[in-house]
Amino acid sequence: MVNVEKYEEWFFQSDYDMETAVDMFKMGRFIYCIFMCHLSLEKALKGLFIKRTGEFPSKSHSLIYFVEKIGLEMSDSRYEFLFTLNKISIPTRYPEDLRKLFATYTEKRTEEILNQAKETQIWIKQQ
């Protein structure tokens, strides 16, 4: 039997991190916004992993790892978004050149990522 509190705690933390992503966006801290989007989706996927398997998730930060472990079926566009967010999480977590990231992740691009992350988080929690 799945311990409801465990997966709901992951979903709660996912919500908290998404709220933080929104706050970071409002403050113009776009790199942290993207980082928090990734963290939020990682926690949502870990919650879903617990809900589906009853097991505690590994400490992996890979969104794709959890999608595959869960056997989560999704549209190509949603998978592509998760794949891309997964790929950009490394430089946002450990930037080699922060100024270069500022140029890449403009307000417009970050807003697109944030909106897709919000939609994806809701979708994950509905599975």
Low-pLDDT runs of 5+ residues are none
Which CATH-level-2 architecture?
Answer: Up-down Bundle
Whole-number mean pLDDT: 94
- How many individual helices? 6
Number of domains: 1
Largest sheet: none
Principal-axis shape: globular
CATH topology: Four Helix Bundle (Hemerythrin (Met), subunit A)
Secondary structure tally: strands: 0
Strand content: under 5%
Taking the alpha carbons of the first and last residues, their distance comes to 18 Å
SSE string, helices as H and strands as E: HHHHHH
What does the radius of gyration come to?
14 Å
Highest CATH level, the class: Mainly Alpha
CATH superfamily: Nucleotidyltransferases  domain 2
> Helicity range of the residues?
over 70%
**SS-derived structural category:** mainly alpha
Explain this structure to me?
- By secondary structure, the protein is an all-alpha fold.
- It has one domain: Up-down Bundle (Four Helix Bundle (Hemerythrin (Met), subunit A)).
- The protein is built from six helices and no strands.
Topology:
Blueprint: H1 4-26, H2 30-53, H3 63-70, H4 76-93, H5 98-104, H6 107-126
